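Researcher: Please generate the 3D structure of the following complex. Treat every line as part of one assembly.
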Amino acid sequence: MINVGLIGFGYWGPNLARNFHHNPFMELAAISDFSEDRLKTAARFYPQTKLYRQADDIINNNGVDVVAIATPVSTHYQLAKKAFQSGKHVWLEKPMTETVAQSEELIELAARYGKKLQVDHTFVYTGAVRKIHSLIDSGDLGDLIYYDSSRVNLGLFQQDVDVIWDLAPHDIAILDYLMPFKKLAVSATGSDYFGTGMTSKSLLTIFMENNVVAHINVSWVSPVKIRQTLIGGTAKMILYDDLEPSEKIKIYDKGVELDYTKEDLYRINVQYRVGDMWAPKLEDHEALSLEVQHFAECIMQGHEPLTNGHSGLEVVKVLVASQESLSQRGGPVELT
Amino acid sequence: MINVGLIGFGYWGPNLARNFHHNPFMELAAISDFSEDRLKTAARFYPQTKLYRQADDIINNNGVDVVAIATPVSTHYQLAKKAFQSGKHVWLEKPMTETVAQSEELIELAARYGKKLQVDHTFVYTGAVRKIHSLIDSGDLGDLIYYDSSRVNLGLFQQDVDVIWDLAPHDIAILDYLMPFKKLAVSATGSDYFGTGMTSKSLLTIFMENNVVAHINVSWVSPVKIRQTLIGGTAKMILYDDLEPSEKIKIYDKGVELDYTKEDLYRINVQYRVGDMWAPKLEDHEALSLEVQHFAECIMQGHEPLTNGHSGLEVVKVLVASQESLSQRGGPVELT
Amino acid sequence: MINVGLIGFGYWGPNLARNFHHNPFMELAAISDFSEDRLKTAARFYPQTKLYRQADDIINNNGVDVVAIATPVSTHYQLAKKAFQSGKHVWLEKPMTETVAQSEELIELAARYGKKLQVDHTFVYTGAVRKIHSLIDSGDLGDLIYYDSSRVNLGLFQQDVDVIWDLAPHDIAILDYLMPFKKLAVSATGSDYFGTGMTSKSLLTIFMENNVVAHINVSWVSPVKIRQTLIGGTAKMILYDDLEPSEKIKIYDKGVELDYTKEDLYRINVQYRVGDMWAPKLEDHEALSLEVQHFAECIMQGHEPLTNGHSGLEVVKVLVASQESLSQRGGPVELT
Amino acid sequence: MINVGLIGFGYWGPNLARNFHHNPFMELAAISDFSEDRLKTAARFYPQTKLYRQADDIINNNGVDVVAIATPVSTHYQLAKKAFQSGKHVWLEKPMTETVAQSEELIELAARYGKKLQVDHTFVYTGAVRKIHSLIDSGDLGDLIYYDSSRVNLGLFQQDVDVIWDLAPHDIAILDYLMPFKKLAVSATGSDYFGTGMTSKSLLTIFMENNVVAHINVSWVSPVKIRQTLIGGTAKMILYDDLEPSEKIKIYDKGVELDYTKEDLYRINVQYRVGDMWAPKLEDHEALSLEVQHFAECIMQGHEPLTNGHSGLEVVKVLVASQESLSQRGGPVELT
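Model: Done. Output below.
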């Protein structure tokens, strides 16, 4: 049995607790939170779990094998570092850390102590994203040309992160999993409409090798909720709509063909092709449950997690570069 | 009766011809096109209209009061200039010209010769955009904070203009009509996926005074057609979906409120408010028909057209700046 | 060249005229209408076509090979009868006649005079319905079990027919083409909400052999327009939504399986199976244009039209039985 | 504190348990179920609740004030009767009983013993249905003319009830709450496609006084899930779509007007009027939670529940009449 100690029982922590609790290979051994109220709630649901006010009581706990960290991003680096030093595996919420150097150090620490590091990019474990991955793998889409996502809704203004740090990690992690091209530069624009110091709406462009481009639109000030991602290939294209109850992904047999045979030798003629649409049945599971199972297996079998520190680092690199580009009103910032 | 001579009977010209023909104050006096086939088609529909191969036969025609120009953008400046010099009013397709200087000169020529210049930004005359304008005018939306539009579909790759020059003029003209803030700078990113020298997908950001920002997403490589515009105010927000058959605009009684009274004096607390949605019945007319009538009235009554040279110039300025920003991968280009 | 004389230039007649005019094998030789205004409109569009006030001038016209009848249903029988007697082929709007006996007589007359009779059930010629037909033909759907259609909207109240005679013929003709089982009985309910003597909303059930049932919901008093048809097979099921711009038909790999192997021998266990969805690209043509071409070929090659008198008669039988059932508040009326 | 004893912890029982448990005025005192497995599950969630194998241990329990019955309909009458005789209040799942006489007897028993009887018609307590009720109450819809509902999906074939007894109670209870006109007769058609003795798809018509008609379409064999109800008034009409995430009800300012002033004195001219659409924000609560609170208040304050025995009886009357009409292929069955 893998004993898990969870730090933080606020917004996302209860979901982690539930999934650790239900996993057959894991035991929810301990939970810490600075709030007495939250600990009372935890006690009601998990009477067998030890409860603490201090995170250190988890980190230094001999009965804990995995430290799961569901606290604000500003605390991620210190807590994870201490957990590795204390000989624990680490489950870390997204985004991984506040700086690139911190993420790099955590990767290095995980390696040094021989422990597993999983960054919780939940969407990578959804049936929809896994299906898209297998479609891309099969070559059906042809050459990939773009990723274009809208992730907008009203509200849930955060006080410690802006809309890019809040919503864009989902898309960057999905992008990194589905289209692992080298990322070259980032351009980001946006506005802090309310003078809070926090951007509440933003457009990101990620320039990648092979002329592939990702466009990401995130917003806290949209009257309607939209979760739509277009993935373009030269042979086929995908619409992934996470709000569709049953047909979350639609594959369009539509593409673009270049015609060099036209009379005008100096011009390439671009033509498009229109065919059927197809919506495959998707696996119906809770993504987080699958992710927890995956992490348990990585620990037991010594494998590397799918969304490990390198995956987390890629996301942080883009976020940090976006922040810089934002202050330059879209001026491109190189990723190195 | 206002006699109209139409230059160009290709993709859009026939729509102009039909609307000039049906307008009670206008007479479709002449059409020119270099294609014999197109002139044959024109003859079938308008047996009473004079047909020419040369544009000059329209421009120098004494029987013509208005020259309507529906030719590629590279020809707009020369044709319109000659038309003014020949003492005609001018109806000009969008985008107005290839350069800012050309647009400025045409505005100056119209003034010098005392003639009307209408740039055909058709969307400004739709029932939906006019309704949004009246809602904004009434103050119902509170302070305007953003414009965010997706105008994507598959195909219709143009050979003389890229996707920005093709699709973005619609949004820039709507923006200019609805939210006439001073435009400060433009950032644009995109990619020429097929090596044709033409960007086929692009993101634009227009920075305006008062911290207002417009985001515009245009694409020729989307498997699905989307025409969605979000307009955000502090009190209410609008979703304008041009593909909806009957409820093209939806007004959401949703907004954002700033709370300065919280215990934490150093932070502004942003809250959102959620209320009803309302979809007003819209006028049901062909926008182009209304636009033609508007131009006829401007000529007869000496008024300035709603989408005159200044409106066309605003669009060209943004397009030209976008082009420059595109080559700098999103680096901001100032508008002066 | 087949010369067509069209009787009636009201609501639907102009669509027929346009399609006869554009068909390469047909000539729109003559039009009659009792309204001077409509004849003026016809003259503007078809200056070469002869125009008459009296239908007899078409029927007795030596220059006419086909009489197309687009007048109220109460006149169909007399006009078509005279047309056959005058040696013409007949194109007849739906519904075919007011009574079963009239339809039977017209079938008999067409046979006696060796002329073709086409009843205009336009939906049978749409790309969507033809595709569904080929899917059913291929056996992919398994055994057909039901047809269920909603055809509702606001308005267009007719004064000479009720909502059943107005809207249900579309569904009955589609049903007859796609699922040609023997029809056994009809149950219809509805209400004349406004005391006009005309039912404005109705539910029809058509009982067919093999336990197959069709349900049809028609209404003139719905605030929203719906055109949705479900077609159920034991192996696959189809959703046909005529208002969808591009994906009008969706094939669901969903079905029902009977399990006789359960412990409880006295019960059949019904299970359902859920798989992918698929939306085929459809032919993109105007249905009426294809139908006109089909009729021209039938005349030239001596074939029987797809929607001939027997097709029209099936529809009339159901309409007449519905009327009787309606007066019995749903009591079943046998079809013989 | 009101002590509740729950009989049946199968499909719906756990939802009741959770809501009784969370209600501040109720105590989930006891649960009975014949399945050892289900009792184990109950023990995990409610360690403080007494568990029994026999329903009688609940009914005869001195520590129980309310008996909640969530068992198959065939057992409702006997269990509820014994509960009243044992001096308990009764919460009864829908449909109330198998026969009209049984429902009538339960109403009589509740009165005789001075106990409350609540039939669980959950939809009546949803924010959407309550909002529609208040709109109708305000008179905004004009005269009500029809109710038309589609409640179809794939699967969940029941073995003890057919699709009418399974799905139609929801609509009949909503109808009874919103449009309490006297019901006169029922016509029902349908088919048992699979030879299981159970109708799996059906159309119901309920004829009511004032010429008002309800149409209800229920199905277990639809490839898509639909939950759409149209409610027509002479002044306004409502579309209630329970699957819409945020805008479940839309009010259309559309209606019908009768024009008696036309030249033709023998005919009433029906005209329609088209205006705005409006989607009110709805209360966001779990309907069952509100319903449980309502029942607690009725017990404490001696009020009659909104969905009491008379509401349950109305539903049973229509179900029983539907069954009879079904066997007559739609022949109308009077409700007395």
